[in-house]
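User: Quick sanity check before I run a bigger batch. Here is a single chain. Can you write out its predicted 3D structure?
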Amino acid sequence: MTSRDSETTYRWPMLTRYAETDELFVLLTPDKYGVGLVVLPKRGAAEPADADRLRAVLDRNATRI
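Assistant: Done. Predicted structure follows.
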């Protein structure tokens, strides 16, 4: 993840679950690590197909809840 002021790398074992709303993807840590999350607003996608591609990547690497 990259923002204006920082860059962070997460590996899939750290973000094993995700949820999706109309406006967000929410990636979650496994319960054994406590509650941690990454929020990805869909408005950050350049086009609707980008959200579809992200969903496909998430489905391959995490469990949808």
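The chain has a mean pLDDT of 91.

User: Great, the batch can go ahead then.
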